[in-house]
C-alpha cells in the first residue's frame, strides 16, 4: 500500500483535469448515474462514518481512524484536499489495524475504469475521484470507512451515501461563502444535509449558537438520535490528562498527540462518533489512540528538513493548514498557550487561496505575532497576491511584507533574530495547499 513510486496515477489525474473541471458539483445526479455504470459500489461499503464541518473534519477523521485501528479494525479513509500527493486522499485499511496510502498503479487503474464508465459525460474531477474512492473501498475488504466531505454536505458527491452508520458535524464557521451562503446558519443548513432519517448524528463543539440550533432542529426533524457536545458528551483537561465523559461514564486518557486545546473537543467528537456507529472502544484502545494519533499540517512541528536548516538555530517551526477565521482563532489560541509556557518571538509565513477571508484569519494574531511574511502558493494560480495579503495583515494590526517564497521569509527571519532573544517560533500556514508546499520544500512529505 505504501508505494513510494508515484507517477502513474498523477498522470491519469492530470489528464482528467484537462478534460474536466476541478470544481464541485451542485447536484448529486451526475455521480449517481456514474456509480450505476460502475455497479453501485457505494452500496457495497462497510459501515460509513460520514464527517462534515468547516473546521476539524481532518482531525476528527484522524481521531476516528486512530481509535478504530487501536481496536484492531481495518479502516479505509477518504479525505480532501491532499497536501503533496493525490494518493493521500485514499488510505487503505489492512489487517490488524494497519493502513497505508493507496498503491500508485491500483489508483491509476481504478481512475481509468471510472473515466471509461463515465464515457465522456460531464463530470467534475472531484466526482470522478469520489467514484474511484467508492470502487476502491468496496473492492478491498475493511471493517469501516471514514468518509470526509469535500465541500458543504447537502450537494457534495460523498452525500450519495444514503445510510451511513453515523453522521458527524464538526465546528461550523464562515468559509466557502460563494457556495454555501454568507451566514453561519446557512452554512449549517448545507452541512446538515448529510444527516439521514433515523441515523445517529454527532454534533461537535460549535462556536455559533445559530449554527447549533440549525443542526439540532434538522436532527429532530429527521428523527436522528442526537449526540451533542456539552450535553451528551464532553471532554476537558484535568491534571494533565484528557477526561472524556458521556452517558456510559468517564474515560481518563492522555492528552492527544495533536497539539492545541481545540483538539480535546475534536477527540471527544470522534470517540462519540465511533461509539454511535456501533463500535466498542475500551479505555485501553482509546489511550493508545490519543498517544498515536497523527494528522499532518495540523499544528505539526517540523523537527528536521531543509526549512528547519534554513531557520535560525533553535527555532520552533509549526505547520498548520487552517485557512478561515475559525481556524485562525484556534491556531492563535494554541500559539498563545505555547507563548505562556515558553516565550519566543512569533513570526508568521502565510499563503492563502483567493476565496478566503485573510483579515478574519489575521485579526486573531494581533498582539501575538511579531511579523508576517506573505508568500505565493506554488502549484496553483488561485492564491492571494502577497502584496494584497500583506495589506490585509496590516489592516488587522500586524506588521507584514510580501516575499517570493518560504525560503526568502526564513532568510528574513534570520536577519531579524536577535542574539539577546530566544530563538523564534515560526508558523507556516494559511492554506492546506501552502502547507503542502512547505512539506515538499522541507523534504518531509506525508507519504
Automatic annotation (TrEMBL):
Cofactor(s) of this protein: Mg(2+)
GO MF annotation: an example: dihydrofolate synthase activity
Swiss-Prot/TrEMBL keywords: ATP-binding, Ligase, Magnesium, Metal-binding, Nucleotide-binding
Keyword Iron: no
One Gene Ontology cellular component annotation held by this UniProt entry: cytoplasm
Family designation: Belongs to the folylpolyglutamate synthase family.
Protein name: tetrahydrofolate synthase
Amino acid at each position: 500500500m505504501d508505494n513510494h513510486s508515484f507517477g502513474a496515477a498523477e498522470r491519469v489525474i492530470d489528464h482528467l483535469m484537462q478534460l474536466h473541471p476541478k470544481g464541485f458539483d451542485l447536484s448529486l445526479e451526475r455521480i449517481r448515474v456514474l456509480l450505476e455504470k460502475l455497479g453501485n459500489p457505494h452500496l457495497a461499503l462497510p459501515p460509513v462514518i460520514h464527517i462534515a464541518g468547516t473546521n476539524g473534519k481532518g482531525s476528527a477523521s484522524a481521531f476516528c481512524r486512530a481509535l478504530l485501528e487501536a481496536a484492531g479494525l481495518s479502516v479505509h479513509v477518504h479525505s480532501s484536499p491532499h497536501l503533496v500527493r493525490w494518493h493521500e486522499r485514499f488510505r487503505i485499511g489492512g489487517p490488524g489495524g494497519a493502513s497505508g496510502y493507496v498503491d500508485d498503479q491500483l489508483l491509476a487503474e481504478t481512475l481509468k475504469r471510472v473515466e471509461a464508465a463515465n464515457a465522456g459525460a460531464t463530470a467534475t474531477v472531484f466526482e470522478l475521484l469520489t467514484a474511484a474512492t467508492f470502487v476502491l473501498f468496496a473492492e478491498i475488504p475493511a471493517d469501516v470507512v471514514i468518509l470526509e466531505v469535500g465541500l458543504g454536505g447537502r450537494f457534495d458527491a460523498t452525500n450519495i451515501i444514503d445510510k451511513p452508520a453515523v453522521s458527524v458535524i464538526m465546528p461550523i464557521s464562515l468559509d466557502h461563502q460563494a457556495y454555501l451562503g454568507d451566514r453561519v446558519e446557512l452554512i449549517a443548513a448545507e452541512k446538515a444535509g448529510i444527516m439521514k432519517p433515523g441515523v445517529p448524528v454527532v454534533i461537535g463543539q460549535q462556536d455559533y449558537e445559530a449554527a447549533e440550533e440549525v443542526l439540532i432542529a434538522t436532527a429532530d426533524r429527521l428523527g436522528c438520535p442526537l449526540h451533542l457536545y456539552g450535553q451528551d458528551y464532553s471532554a476537558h483537561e484535568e491534571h494533565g490528562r484528557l477526561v472524556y465523559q458521556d452517558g456510559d461514564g468517564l474515560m481518563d486518557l492522555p492528552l492527544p498527540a495533536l497539539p492545541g486545546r481545540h483538539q480535546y473537543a475534536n477527540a471527544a467528537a470522534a470517540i462519540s462518533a465511533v461509539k454511535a456507529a456501533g463500535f466498542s472502544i475500551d479505555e485501553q484502545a482509546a489511550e493508545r489512540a490519543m498517544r498515536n494519533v497523527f494528522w499532518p499540517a495540523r499544528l505539526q512541528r517540523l523537527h528536521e528538513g531543509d526549512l528547519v536548516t534554513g531557520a535560525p538555530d533553535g527555532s520552533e517551526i509549526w505547520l498548520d493548514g487552517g485557512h478561515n477565521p475559525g481556524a485562525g482563532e484556534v491556531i492563535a489560541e494554541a500559539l498563545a498557550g505555547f507563548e505562556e509556557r515558553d516565550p519566543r518571538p512569533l513570526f508568521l509565513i502565510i499563503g492563502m487561496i483567493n476565496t478566503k477571508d485573510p483579515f478574519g484569519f489575521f485579526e486573531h494574531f494581533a498582539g501575538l505575532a511579531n511579523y508576517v511574511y506573505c508568500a505565493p502558493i506554488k502549484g496553483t494560480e488561485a492564491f492571494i497576491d502577497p502584496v494584497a495579503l500583506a495589506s490585509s495583515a496590516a489592516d488587522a494590526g500586524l506588521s507584514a511584507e510580501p516575499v517570493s517564497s518560504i525560503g526568502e521569509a526564513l532568510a528574513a527571519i534570520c536577519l531579524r533574530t536577535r542574539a539577546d532573544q530566544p530563538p523564534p517560533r515560526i508558523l507556516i500556514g494559511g492554506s492546506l495547499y501552502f502547507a503542502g508546499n512547505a512539506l515538499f520544500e522541507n523534504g518531509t512529505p506525508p507519504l
